[in-house]
Amino acid sequence: MNPHPRNQPSAADLAHLFIGGLIRLWTLICYRVTVRSAAPLPWGPVLFACNHRSFLDPPMAGMWSRVPVCYFARASLWKNPLIGGVLDIFSGIPVDRDNPGASSMKGAIERLKAGKQVLVFPEGTRTRTGYLARFKDGPALFARRANVPVIPVYVWRTERCWPRESKLPRPFGSRLEVRYGRPLRAPADLPPRQQDRWMMLHLEAWMRLQERRMLSPLPRGVRG
Questions:
Q1: Among 59, 196, 197, 216, which is most exposed with the fewest C-beta within 10 angstroms?
Q2: Which domains does the chain have, with CATH numbers?
């Protein structure tokens, strides 16, 4: 029996359908985005863990999901009624600048336990080098405490479409790619800390494999 049955469409579902549809159309036309998934994306609770290259990453990583995805945002953004309203529709997770770790952990776990999907960036911030930075262990902790799988996500070239120094994305840009890996679950018989270590090792290994493949693409006709 599904512990998180799908009921009537919510405001978030409708917004995801309408806004997400517009963004998907825009990226398909303007950025010629390619989406690859190792397995069908789930309907139920899951933690998406994505590399971070640009402000474009949240919609790029989340809008291909079947259901609305919850994002982290600075708590101060809720002071703007319009932005705050949109964030509330999507069950945005406020991050307190004075206590970011505790606020993000509580919000993420609450939403995952409620059956929602959450997107997190293990690097914590956008890369300055173009390469993966050191990972923080938040994803493993969130997933273990909420008892949900982690789906790794790798986005490519988003920094060319929304550079760090730009306030807005470029209307047209390089060809983008989004890759989803298979769901990861740490072995249940491991102690908690070893479960977290297992998760982060496998998550980072998958991410670095995608990075190597994107930097050194396989010859035409060879599948990775």
A1: 216
A2: 11-164+172-215 (3.40.1130.10)
